[in-house]
Write a sequence for this structure.
């Protein structure tokens, strides 16, 4: 097993392959991970004034030239919005900021009481300029952070698998596995006293969304587009399994946002998930039920 | 009515992008204009000393209006569940940071 990792975005990113130790392969994996993370940061960071996302947000209501790479991330986010009926909405950047999730180094308590709504159906993409152009509705701002790490997990896993390796790409909890033999991934709810649950994956993904990590006085980072405010949810975290990391992330985040309606929604969509709250654990689909000890 | 995001294309580019097998031609145009990547072969991958880099964005992400059919929509508008090979009674292997899904 070879594993490389880096700390960034206030989380840990890992890339693992089943292979015997090889300094050359390890070096290449490290370089691949570093390059792809750097690239995504330049595309989609909300905290970098020189990112493509910042340029788009600075000109909401106008067509803005972007790279195809930016289009790729944005398309994944719009797919997530479509799959969830708009519950995972990439145009809630202003609401996220208003909720207090503003500066990367210092998450401040919000003083902005305005409600900001999204409008993901108003996003346009067209070829133009050097590569492509994006239009976001006036009055909105993009925040691709919800899906971007999952997009990167899928992207890296596919590339490494295409090179002939069995791979597990873990981008801050958005985990994509592409193997022939099962690879155990542990769904950790991050709630003290609550155990992790193992899942054996081959070509699939698991993602965990929750309110415990990126939270501050008065809020957290998961916005309910129906209110424009941090989701009022009883779930500390939701782990979901799906065919890809983007899909698993969309499912898990939707589960958090929907609160008490989350298990029913995921069940209706045939999804396996584990909902964890202070009161206990609820599972859907094929995820085994758990009985309190 | 389509529920997909509004994706608008200029006529010439849309025609190229929608044409079957035109990926290489589109790629060539983009290469000439962006210079963002170095050697990219017809399969849109390159190697990093034997390790392939991710597939080039341009040939995969753009959905021209011609692609925005009901069939396409149905195939992408639903979260795809875990495949049958997924099991939940495992735990064959120790837990580490690298194989843990935790909200972050």
């Amino acid at each position: 097993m070879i594993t490389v990792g880096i700390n960034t975005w206030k989380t840990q990113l890992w890339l693992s392959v089943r292979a015997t130790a090889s300094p050359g392969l390890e070096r290449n994996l490290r370089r691949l991970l570093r390059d792809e993370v750097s690239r995504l940061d330049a595309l989609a960071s909300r905290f970098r004034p020189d990112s493509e996302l910042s340029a788009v947000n600075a000109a909401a209501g106008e067509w803005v030239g972007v790279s195809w790479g930016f289009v790729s991330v944005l398309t994944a986010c719009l797919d997530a919005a479509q799959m969830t009926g708009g519950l995972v909405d990439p145009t809630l950047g202003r609401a996220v900021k208003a909720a207090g999730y503003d500066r990367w180094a210092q998450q401040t308590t919000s003083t902005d009481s305005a409600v900001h709504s999204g409008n993901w159906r108003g996003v346009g993409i067209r070829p133009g300029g050097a590569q492509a152009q994006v239009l976001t509705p006036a009055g909105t701002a993009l925040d691709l952070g919800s899906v971007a790490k999952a997009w990167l997990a899928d992207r890296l896993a596919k590339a490494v698998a295409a090179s002939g390796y069995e791979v597990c790409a873990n981008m801050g909890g958005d985990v994509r596995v592409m193997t022939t033999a099962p690879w155990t991934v542990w769904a950790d709810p991050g709630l003290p006293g609550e155990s992790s649950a193992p899942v054996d994956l081959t070509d699939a993904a698991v993602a965990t969304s929750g309110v415990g990590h990126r939270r501050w006085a008065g809020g957290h980072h998961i916005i309910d587009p129906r209110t424009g405010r941090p989701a009022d949810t009883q779930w500390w975290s939701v782990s979901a399994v799906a065919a890809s990391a983007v899909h698993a992330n969309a499912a898990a985040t939707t589960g958090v946002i929907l609160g008490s309606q989350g298990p029913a929604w995921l069940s209706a969509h045939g999804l396996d998930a584990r909902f964890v709250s202070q009161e206990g654990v609820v599972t859907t689909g094929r995820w085994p039920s758990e009985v309190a000890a | 009515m389509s529920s997909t995001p509004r994706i608008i294309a200029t006529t010439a580019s849309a025609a190229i992008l929608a044409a079957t097998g035109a990926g290489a031609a589109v790629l060539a145009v983009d290469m000439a204009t962006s210079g963002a990547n170095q050697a990219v072969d017809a399969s849109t991958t390159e190697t990093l000393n034997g390790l392939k880099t991710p597939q080039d964005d341009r040939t995969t992400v753009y959905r021209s209006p011609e692609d925005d059919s009901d069939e396409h929509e149905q195939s992408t508008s639903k979260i795809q569940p875990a495949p049958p090979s997924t099991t939940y009674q495992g735990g064959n292997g120790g837990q580490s940071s690298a194989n843990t899904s935790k909200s972050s």
About this structure: Chain A has seven helices and 15 strands.
